[in-house]
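Team,

Forwarding the record for the chain on the shared tracking sheet. I've put the sequence and predicted structure together so nobody has to dig through attachments.
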Amino acid sequence: MEEKQFKSGFTAIIGRPNVGKSTLMNALIGQKIAITSGRAQTTRRRIETVYTDDRGQIVFVDTPGINKAKTKLGDYMLESAEGSLRAVDCIMWLVEPSTFIGAGERAIIEMLSRCHVPVILVINKIDAVKPEEVPKAIDKYKSELPFADIVPVSAIKNKNTDELLDIIFSHLHEGPMYYDEDTVTEETVRDIASELIREQALKLLDKEVPHGIAVLIDSMKEREGQDITDIEATIICERDSHKGIIIGKNGAMLKKIGSRARAEIEDMLEQKVNLKIWVKVRPGWRDNNMLLREYGYDKKDLK
């Protein structure tokens, strides 16, 4: 009996902001790693997650939403997304079920036309439109690029995600196991905790504030002999007025952010968490190369 072939490879997930890339990646691996929200710039860094079964191993590379850069942080995000396409075996392009193709989609089409790996078009959010709208969107995009496959899905409802995994494996070749079978991400616990705090800030704060925040984990230590982890974190913002909004009246907003983030971190760590958060102002940090490196957005890491 012929031994079953073990396939492996890297698959990039790209698309414009808010099309559901992180939600889909979390659904495919069956665990929350990337944060999600309804705001642009939710994903700022390239995040790798791992799916392994008896067919093989897929390393998913979730990228920041592709958009025109307005700051040095934006440049970092765009370079991160574009760089991901140069070293993968397969690309998933997420779009919404619409026949409108705007300037952002045109830029991605131009980018993909230069790629020499299979491109799978994933029509996400099919649960949000009438069924007859999906074939129209498929026909429109089919006229733009020769896709290897087209898959309609609903990431939030986990619809057609198994079919999508089948299709990704069909485009991968025999290869090694890059990670242990129990690995789901190379992200550190500190990195994920930082992002979980930022996620709650994104969801709770006024529209103009979230783009200008970063979150640092200053310390993270499990208490000796106790099932509890102490975490100290700092939210960085750009203006004193933003600091006031983040803290809120009598500290109410900061308490709300902390309470929700603590619950998410406790789910991840499967133990109690004592979370303390401070807020500091660093004007113009998104255009300051030194601060960008300090906060984890170093272009050298993209090489």
